[in-house]
Amino acid sequence: MITSMTSLVTVDEVFAARKALSGFARVTPMEPSRGMDSVPGPVYFKCENLQRAGSYKVRGAYVRISRLSKAERARGVVAASAGNHAQGVAVAAAELGAAATVFMPSGAPLPKVAATRGYGARVELVGSTVEDCLAAAREHSEATGAVFIHPFDHPDVIAGQGTVACEIFEQCPEVKTIVAGVGGGGLISGIGVAAKALRPEVKVIGVQAEQAAAMPPSLRAGRPVRLSSYATIADGIKVGRPGEVTFPHVRDLVDDVVTVSEEDITQAVLVLLERNKLLVEPAGVVGAAALLSGVLAAEPPTVVVLSGGNIDPLLLLRLIEHGLAASGRFLRFTVRCSDVPGVLASMLGLIAERGGNVIDVMHQRYDRGHYVGEVTVALSVETRGDDHAAHLLSALKDAGYAVTMQGSGAH
């Protein structure tokens, strides 16, 4: 158990990690933000979504494995992850000549599973949570002698992640606030180590998904607290309990931890994709989500770490549709009307006259709630935003159509 007397990682260890990573990890770009006009600026994005293997995780994984002895590497390494740590370990192990076995949840996104295998690791699908995989990985380590590479709770991993902050200070020397996502706490711990040693006046803010936010209650309790349940689309930060090593770093070095909703995360994915041309996974956008939603008022200049870009294309499709609906640009609704010739054409004509673009139409003639001669028509319509959507729906209702909204596009 880690006590209050436990030594924190030092900035010299972060410097050593940076030297170890030279020639392996990318110095990822810093990009000015777009589409964040409501946020006091300037705001910059540290694009770890463009890192090798698609996330910052490769930094800590490489540093940890690079510090193993030849004998330890010969026994191989084992890890547990929902995706990004898995890929980071796979890439780092291949570079350093160690065989890697990775345990992933059975529901892990298929592209992350395929990528991990593609980088050379052996993948085992176990259980439904990262905690299930951690238990399996530890059992494998005990049975085979493979070295367990924890996704966040180790000083070498924290030191490796802290190299992100070193690059931030070089790329944006005037930074006043650094914002990053928090799962188990490895990234924010490393950033805190570097920031408070090099620029103690810089604020370090962590962000969690509110449906998987173990850090705030842990900080209140003064010790790591396990959530009884947690679920979020941000699978990369879906962690039910802070680490024993990371917790004191967050407690002592991080200025605040805030939370964002699933809706906030979805909107941020869309803004970064549409306005900034950056593909970022849900866990990677929580910092941007905190600024866009207003739950965090950061002192600018602000640097937001976009921690990963590994997203399942099917999830991306759903997030885009959901985000468009939430912004009033995509409507799903049903209209109950008479099942007689000309009614559907008249309704579609009204939608077209008001500038709506019908994506799809489906008739539902046989329903217990229908009167004889009635039909329900389900429509998906593209609009130009909230005002246009409200105008279109109002026109349908004024014309006598009984409109019922479906999903998140309700007005």
Automatic annotation (TrEMBL):
Top-level class of the enzyme under EC nomenclature: lyase
InterPro entries xref list: ACT-like_dom_sf (IPR045865), ACT_dom (IPR002912), ACT_ThrD-II-like (IPR044561), Ser/Thr_Dehydratase (IPR050147), Thr_deHydtase_catblc (IPR005789), TrpB-like_PALP (IPR001926), TrpB-like_PALP_sf (IPR036052)
Cofactor(s) the protein requires to work: pyridoxal 5'-phosphate
Alphabetical list of Pfam families matching this protein: ACT, PALP
EC number per UniProt: 4.3.1.19
Origin superkingdom: Bacteria
Record family assignment: Belongs to the serine/threonine dehydratase family.
Name this protein carries in UniProt: threonine ammonia-lyase
Organism encoding this protein: Stackebrandtia nassauensis (strain DSM 44728 / CIP 108903 / NRRL B-16338 / NBRC 102104 / LLR-40K-21)
